[in-house]
Amino acid sequence: MATTTTETVQSTRSMGFGLPGGHEVILVIDDDEDVRKIVCALLAAKGYQVVTAKSGESGIAVAQQSNPHLILLDVQMPDITGFEVCKELRWQSKFKDTPILFITASDSTEDKIEGFNAGGTDYICKPLSGKELIARVQLHMEVARSRSQLRKKNSLLEGIVASQTQRLNQVRHGQTNILTDPSGLSEIRAAVRYVPILEAGGDFYEIVRLSEDSFGLFVADVSGHDLGVAYLTGALKALVLSFASEALTPADTILMLNSSLCRFLGAEQYVTACYAKVSRSQKTVEIASAGHPPSLFVSHLGSNTYIDLVGDVLGIHETIQPGVTSFCFEPKDRIYLYSDGLIESYRTKEGKSGSRAFGCNRLSEAIQKHQHGSLGRGIDDVVDELIIECDHSVDDDIVLLGFEC
Q1: What is the rounded CA–CA span in Å between residue 70 and residue 26?
Q2: Which phi and psi angles does 70 have, rounded to 5°?
Q3: What pLDDT is recorded for position 185?
Q4: CB neighbours of 276 closer than 8 A, spacing ≥ 6?
Q5: CA angle 129, 135, 136 (to 5 degrees)
Q6: What is the per-residue pLDDT across 172-182, written as a single tens digit (0 to 9) for each?
Q7: Cα separation of 64 and 119, whole Å?
Q8: Fewer CB within 10 A of the end CB, N or C, for the chain?
């Protein structure tokens, strides 16, 4: 392979790192012609493509043209020093990661510190040892190769992450759009807080107007946390809107949901659900539960009562038995439906979570603490306190839906 020993460039191709043998370009900048010849001979023997320059200013120009993979740079030159050349090259983004090895007769600590501060990668002291020169060049070439490969992998990963993030945002946006905003229902007092632990959650809620003075409140939890669960919530909404009716009891609606879910849920998937039907004219509440956590009834007088119903989960067996009950209410009484992620995220003094009984007690205390304000503000305060208590790392999706009778 021919070696360039003048201030011209043999090849201006910009190549990626590969095996030595013409694929890696080394620039030698030194005002001593003998040093340039020796270094060129050593590097050419190892298969490197070498370009040279005999001054600092010309070295910068040659670097611009040749795009070297490594630079050997003399410190003491007649026009500008190697330190100044190094600083100038490091200002340019394409040389920010190029290995720059100083060649110098000085072995002083002060010079080495100045060189490293200028952006140098390593030092090789004169008189040159051929074995040391080749060893250091090969070492820094290998490090540069590894960094180049890592950058390519990172760039690829960043592209994948960006693509997945866009997809997840689309899923989240789609899921959020199907959830009813209680603020749009001006004729009722309802509020909800929904907190998915991933980009899209498996919890679901719905508020349905059944007639002029009756409403349906529905909260469900689909097993699992993958993206497929988020798509099931869209199917749940369609089913709830189809089966929630003034003419049907909550138990009827739950049974019809189960019949449909059994047809398209996976073998290990299931849904827990709670459906409350509120009639303002009759001042009654009917509730049906399918393996769901107990709803909470809060009297306007301040007493809290959990409505714990035993019922089978949805989507596993064709024949199920939901838990059902009904009771009367007074104006300004409140009903809360929620998912198990809420009560099971509360931490004990020992830092343990997952206890439903403990979580129910904590939830009751939190709701009682914040019951005197607006319904929406109270729900936000309850959930915010829990999230802070958990150091913003709750274990499951959270839904807390409140309705004032």
Answers
A1: 5
A2: -155, 150
A3: 67
A4: 216, 217, 218, 250, 285, 286, 287, 295, 335, 337, 403
A5: 90
A6: 554 555 567 77
A7: 17
A8: N
Cβ atoms of 89 and 98 closer than 8 Å: yes
- Please state, in angstroms and rounded to a whole number, the distance separating the CA atoms of residues 215 and 237: 15
DSSP 308: -
* 70-74 and 122-125 beta bridge pairing: unpaired
Q: Which residues of the chain have pLDDT under 50?
A: 1-22, 165, 168, 170-171, 174
Strands 284-290 and 271-279: antiparallel
Query: Is the peptide bond prior to 99 cis by the omega test (within 30 degrees of 0)?
Result: no
- What stretches of 99-129 show up as alpha helix (H) in DSSP? 109-118
**CB-count burial class (<10 Å; 0-12, 13-18, 19+) for 337:** buried
For 272-329, the pLDDT digits (tens) are 999 999 998 999 999 999 999 999 999 988 899 999 998 999 999 999 999 999 999 9
Axis-axis angle for helices 56-66, 82-90 (nearest 10): 30
| Beta-bridge partners for 207 | 217
List the strands of the sheet with 203-209, edge to edge. Answer: 203-209, 214-222, 271-279, 284-290, 323-328
Query: Could you give all domains of the chain from N- to C-terminal order, each with its CATH number?
Result: 25-151 (3.40.50.2300), 179-404 (3.60.40.10)
User: What phi-psi label fits residue 385: left (phi over 0), alpha (psi between -120 and 50 degrees) or beta?
Assistant: alpha
